[in-house]
Amino acid sequence: MKKSERHQFILDFLKESPYVDVAYLTETLNVSEMTIRRDLSKLEEDKLLLRVHGGARRIPTNRFEAPLDSRLLNNHIEKKAIGRYAAGLVQDGDVIAMDASSTVYHMVEYLQDKKITVITNNISIAMGFAKSESVEVILLGGKLRKSSLYVFGYDTLNMMENYNTNKAFFSSTSLNIENGLTDSSVNEGKTKKSMILSADESFLLMDTSKFGTRSYYNVISLEKLNHIITNESNRKDIINYFNFFKEKNIQTHICV
Hints:
Helix 2 (22-29) crosses helix 3. The termini are far apart. The protein is α/β, with parallel strands linked by helices. It contains ten helices and 15 strands. Residues 3-58 form the HTH deoR-type domain.
């Protein structure tokens, strides 16, 4: 099969399915894994798909909410550092909730050897633990958002309310002192709140670029948070937030 034909096959497949994996393409098209990876790289360069771990995803049409994979690229260094720090706060025996945010996703690689139970509404996070022998995963049910691979809705909230967790790890679109924690997605916002209320301790993972911003859906007041894990910043106004967190007995963890 010619390269152009392979490319068309991949694009046609992604019209019907949001995801395709390298192993399937290698077997179906009878070519090497390296050939498929080159094909996917070329199609991504042409902005026709998004490469993800083990395969590729179609580009979502929703303009307002970026898919998880593209969100991972935003402030990548800060998010990775925050995710690594947060994972260090998880202990063997913990039952933790993890939301569908890209910052929380960065915890996955550092939790592989922990003896824990993870409750999540994010399919990518659940798949990230597929090869871990020590992490037990409970994937919440609900309506699937195909472009971002998370579930939401009444069933998701109903299931989450039945669980008690030691720690909830989550992020959000925006934070400011007046409005608290806000999000651009009502569906994700409701799930985050449910996870926070289920937990003994809540951990907000958020880089400082989101401080001082506001989205339209109110998730929860800052007084309900126990911990905020963030990065260093040269912004002069950030000290106001750190002082506010201290005043409200919210422990601030700063990743260097």
